[in-house]
Amino acid sequence: MLTISMDELVNAICLNMAMRKQVRPEDVEVELLWEEDLGFSTKVTIHGRDQYLVEANMLEAVEQYVNREYGYRVFRSDIKLHVEDEMWATVDIHQ
Asked: Which of 53, 72, 80, 82 could disulfide-pair with 57, CB 3.0 to 4.6 Å?
């Protein structure tokens, strides 16, 4: 099992959105959100414009990040988001 810290989760979303919007990662601001009624989401700001991502977008970003940074091919169903004092993810690695 691989644990993705809050900082790595932010980096994963930042890199994913930079690639999708064709901007530099430094141009992307990420705020992780969790609400009891709505679950996990993310507020992304690029050049002053806000966009909200749902949990599926977050899982896609983690999936790509784990593949790029750790060399593991995982599926969204292998990724679980968690929140207590801060947000993190666990990834079930199948080899």
From this structure: 53
pLDDT of residue 47: 95
Residue 61's nearest CA partner among 32, 83, 38 is: 32
CA distance 86 to 94: 26
pLDDT confidence bin for 38, thresholds 50/70/90:
confident
Instruction: Say if residues 81 and 55 touch (Cβ distance below 8 Å).
Output: yes
72 C-beta neighbours (distance < 10 Å), count: 15
Q: What is the mean pLDDT of residues 38-47?
A: 95
Helix (H, G, I), strand (E, B) or coil at 20: helix
